[in-house]
# Entry
Amino acid sequence: MPLETKIYQKDNRLKLNRVLKACVKDFFGSHFLAKQLATRDIRAQYRQSYLGIIWAFITPVFSALVWIMLSVTGTVKLSDTGIPYPVYVFSGTLIWSILKEAINLPTSNTNAARSILTKINFPKEALILSGMYKLFFNSAIKILLLVLIVILFGLGFSWSLLLFPLVIVCAVLFGVTIGLFITPFGLIYTDVGKIITFGLGLVMYITPVVYAIPQEGVMRTIMEINPFTPMIIVARNVIVGSNPEFLSYFLSIIGISFPLFFIGLLFYRISIPIIVERLSA
Amino acid sequence: MENKEVLIKVEGLSKKFCKDLKTSLWYGVKDLVANIKGNKNDRLLRNKEFWALQDINFEVRRGECLGLIGHNGAGKSTLLKILNGLINPDAGKVTIKGKVGALIELGAGFNPILSGRENIYNNGAVLGFSKEEIDKKVEEIIDFAEIREFIDMPVQNYSSGMKVRLGFAVAAQMEPDVLIIDEVLAVGDVSFKVKCFNALEKLLERCAVIIVSHSMPQIARICTDLILLGGGSIVIHEKGGLSLAIENYYKLVGNINSAELGNGTLNVSNILINNQSDEIIDVLYKEPLQLKIKLNFKTIIERLTIKVTFFDVEQKPVAQLSSFNDKMIIEPLGNEIWITSVVNDLFLNVGRYTLHIVIRELIEGNKESDILCLLRSARSINVIGNNYYSHAPCLMAGEWNQEI
# Structure
């Protein structure tokens, strides 16, 4: 059997499509490593905690509760959302928290693996995949909670609910794709991560997370352009079984995200040596 | 040996680093962007950069073991990182054939909260094993590490020795074609060290190995070739021999500062080795070594003994010259005397040795009493003139013959 040959030199004189092929191969080939890393992190996380999975959804639940309070007490006047407000706000904050985690996932997972990254050569794509496994695990808990709330408010079960996991997978793909392009810069400058956290906090207000899109005005235009809007809206429509709005926008974003995801992965792959060089201690 | 395949080939390899963090990070961002476009230009030094490695060339065949030695910052670890594919070179080319295994960090991927057994899977996965492979080897790993009793205990409660045992046990299961080792051999207690060495020697036979170490006995034991790095370039590259590079390594590594202690009754005012007074003196293997020590007395001492201990580079005592053992009791004849001692055949092998001198008073019943004077690292000798290098510091001359 001929031995596999590795060549390291300054520029990647290899053809781009070959690197991409290797990248995709490593992404799907590192399933075991990714699963192992994900179970390691999840186990360790729960073994050292009594409240366990509660931490997965405590932030979105509480921010939803705050908005419910504001709305019920009449502190803020919100326009009609079409569905019971608690369902609206819970679904909004839970989906938003998944999206936020997805964007931060490549950076945080790579950062956590810094010590092995600088010493051992392993498929870096596994870090992204393991992060996605972890995210799906946490999201599954959130989805169950959400289904419970939907039934509790008597919205009943609709068949479209079965599509919900698929929508979440799409939303995660979208989020991770954004994250992949940010990560190399985020690993070099900590400012980048801070800007993202700060920025996402603001973007939430131009996304229909806790209130509906207004009927008219500048805000309506902004919210309609915002690519996060279709993610939240479509996911919510699927849960309550109403007619999906923004469907074509949603589908085109996912359609673009899919190839971009692999380009992002490629960018991530070729960036890691530069990052390791700058950070290795 | 010659016809075995070349597994590692390094041609004109160079790597630059930046001295300043802020600038380094900014260059990082620039490189990220340039990388996308496919940076084909020659890389020149930018402001605040320096060559950490420059124009390195060598090749290693299967069954060969190349040792990398040099002072701290000579570029050894950088070279290993490039060979391991962690960072990319700035010029030149590395070609590696076959599966690469790295013994650089033991126990990578361990999570302290999880049990030893779970961490075998974590570590194994990071090292590139499949689940089936680990399933098959897990018992062997536990036995090798000799920690069956504690295997289901969280790793955070392990002693550091147990952790490296487990880490090494997992790593030892690799079946690489190319093995990269960075000073991880000194793990655990003596019995485990022996075990590690045996496991390694088994690997060495079928691998091309590159090892970084500061321990010359270790290097001498396993290496076939040796590269002495200095300031990022190859100073000496020896194929099939080690003594020249090791000799030069000892000359390169810094000298140890001497220190004098004592109760003030006497001091050593001069030391001559083979009539030379330099700090470091080259002496020839198997030739006589003459030591002359000048003593100045402040108070009268009736009888004394002198001991000279030879320490190797790892600060281990390897030989001693003792007037007491040679049945010589010194009864000073004046306030200023020269003590001479001659060793007829110097049996220390090539390398650097430091001399520590202790002078003690002899009291009744020929018992050694107070230390009058203690000189640490008084002088150093460089033993040269022997081509045979062994990891043992002393070479005895034997008379050999055979009978039927």
